[in-house]
Amino acid sequence: MFFPTDPTSIAKLQNIFHEYERSIQKVRSRHGYLSDKVNQLDAERAELKNSLEEVKDAKSALERNQLELFQLKQEQENRRNSEIMYNTTRDKLRRTEEQHQLDLQDKQQVELTLRNLELEMRTLIIFPFWALEEHSETQRLLTQERSARTLQENLLNGHLRRQQEMEEENKRSMSRSNEVCLGFSYKMHRFFKILEIENAKLEAAAKQQTSKIEALQKEAEEAVKVSPEEQPPPPKEQRLCLRSLICSLHKHQLEEEVLNLRRRMEATQAEHSQVEQLRRDAEERIRQEVQHKLEQVNLFLQTHAASQEALDQIRAANEASLRSQLEQKIRELEAELGRARNSQQDSLTQRDSTRSELERFKQLHSEELRLRKSLSAKLESRLAEANSKLLNERSRSLISSNMANGSLLGPPLDLSSLASPANYGQLNRNASLGLSLLNPAPDGQRSGVDDYLAKVCRGLYFTVCVNAEALLGSFPLNFSL
């Protein structure tokens, strides 16, 4: 092999060798740079893939947030439905209370009519001062009923006022929660837009980097294809130096890009954490408000139930007391009515007995009159017989005396005519004219008997009348003897 010895050729060869070395170093450095660039682009692709995965995670988180927002809206809808149900239940309770008030008014009207009927019955049956006592008792019961009704109306007004206050508070809390939800939804919407913009930027950068990587890969492949044919292989040390230099440059660039991506991710995470914190705060406030409202509603329902129970107890006590009082009054009225009926029955029986006694006295009086007539007739007949006997005896004595004296004072008497009862008056007149001188006792005896009989009749009549009046009492005796 021929080696040149002159210095010019050696210098030329050295220059050519140095140029070759420089060109080889350039090619190697370019190849290393391209390989480092390819590795960097691969790392960037991996980072971009990681960022895409993070963006996908952010999208999934946003979807979860949207789902949570939907759940919040669903909860708001459920709350609205519960408020509607509460309003309907309140209306039903109000209607039930109104119906109960109407029933109570009807019952009070019936009780008032019953009391009026009782008052009328008492005024018709019992004495006036009892009617006054019943009126005072009725006024007292009406006063108690008015006081109970006033208490009930005050309780109902208090419940309605508290219910209106709770409704106003619910409206205010709903407006605040709606404002918070609107602000939260606006922030989430803006965050979604920002993430979409960042995602679009990252996708564009990823596409650009992939296109660059593909172009660099093509250039590197072409350079690799061209360089082995034109240039000799570089030494190992120069290759290692170039590789370390390219690696350091690529590492520095990757560190800067990683720092940029970290700053960007930290900002995104900070904003996302802020949004999450806002969402949690809003959820906590809404939950606390809902819990507070539910507690208020439960407390109101408990107080309403307690007040309703108290009202029911008061109403039941009032009804029981009124019922017992009415039953007592009814029993008293029934007892008074029984006593009145018994007294009326006694008066009727006494009247009947008095009438029977009166009839008996009338019969006795008629029997007495009949006996008096019969006795008078017998007495008249006996007196006539006695007078006839007396006249006969006197006529005999007169005849005997005249015969003894030899003279007659008057014409002879017709003894047969004097002995008849029809001529009793004539006998009396003749006896009073001509025979009173001999025996005046029979006329005085007859007049005494008549007076005695008249006196006995008058005394008997007076006794019968007095006894009849004493038995009949206030019943008049309209009869005549």
By helix and strand content, what is the structural category? mainly alpha
Task: Report the span from N to C terminus.
Answer: 206 Å
Helix content: over 70%
The rounded Rg comes to 74 Å
Give the overall shape, derived from the CA principal axes: rod-shaped
Which blocks of ≥5 consecutive residues have pLDDT under 50?
227-233, 407-446, 474-481
Number of domains: 2
Number of strands: 0
Strand share of the residues?
A: under 5%
Round the mean pLDDT to the nearest integer and report it.
70
Taken in chain order, the helices and strands follow as HHHHHH
Biggest beta-sheet profile: none
Number of helices: 6
Key features of this structure:
481 residues, mainly alpha, 2 domains, 91% helix, disordered C terminus
Provide a descriptive summary of the structure in words:
With 481 residues, this protein is mainly alpha-helical. The chain has 2 domains: 7-347; 357-402 and 414-472. The protein contains 6 helices and no strands. The chain has helices at residues 7-125, 128-230, 236-405, 415-419, 424-434, 441-472. The protein starts with 6 loop residues before the first helix and ends in a 9-residue tail after the last helix.
List the helices and strands and how they pair.
Blueprint lengths: L6 H119 L2 H103 L5 H170 L9 H5 L4 H11 L6 H32 L9
Helix pairs in contact: 1-2, 1-3, 2-3, 3-6
Describe what is shown at a glance.
The protein is mainly α and 481 residues long. It has helices at residues 7-125, 128-230, 236-405, 415-419, 424-434, 441-472.
